[in-house]
Amino acid sequence: MIKIKKEDFEKILALQGAKEKIYTVEEQITEVITRLRSTGFYANDCSDVDQLRAINFYLRATRKELDNVIETIINCNK
Asked: Under a CB-based contact definition with an 8 Å cutoff, are residues 34 and 57 in contact?
């Protein structure tokens, strides 16, 4: 069993907080994409929407990676 030091545990909690913030940003970007598409303003040029989707994909991947790291650390400490 691995013992986590108090300062390391605080870093793990900070990672959890970062993961939650990333999720919030993902949701906001998704809402922006939905609104942009519903206005029809970007019907001919979707490059901005595509960039937002790429950012969202990156954020989602980062959040999942953070989740895996946190899960691994917690499982090693059991």
From this structure: no
Which residues are CB-contacts of 74 (< 8 A; sequence separation ≥ 6)?
12
Judged by phi (left if over 0) then psi (alpha if -120 to 50, else beta), residue 21 lies in: alpha
The secondary structure of 4-49 as a DSSP string is: PPHHHHHHHHHHHHHHHHHHHHHHHHHHHHHHHHHH-TTSS--HHH
Residues in the chain: 78
Which pTM does this prediction carry?
Answer: 0.73
**15-56: per-residue pLDDT in tens?**
888 889 999 999 999 999 888 888 776 667 778 888 999 999
